[in-house]
Please model this.
Amino acid sequence: MLLDDLLTVKDDMVAFIAGHGLRTMTAFVPEELAAVLFEDDDPESWKDFVEHAKSANVPFVTMSEVVLEPEDVATLLEQVRDQHYPDHEAHELEEAQSLTQHVGKIGYLQLGFSAGGVVYLYEAATPWYDQFQELLDSVSGLSNLMIDDHDDDSL
Model:
């Protein structure tokens, strides 16, 4: 079952983590940090992740969430429009506009813990959040290509 909002999952996570005697610390582990990503297709696999943290005797689990803000969608729409001007019927523009129905919802959750010098992560995302990220990456990638077309030999 695919969820549209991860709020109930987050609430369940907080209760489950506390029930295992662990604390949560609001923190995001960035992609640049080397980490082991916990992989399991079961939507309830985050429980196994928390149990691994408990068995590693860690005092806390990091938790981060991403809520889609109106400004996020507005910025994305502006960037997509700029990239596809004058084609105001571009498929990407329709996709970006469809994201407005998800404003205020949690689209991404990350749990993490460190044990033995290794950072372990669990990530969950909604399909619309993945779509948002793909659009953002494609627009950002195109912007970098367009900006980066000058000759640096003059330096």
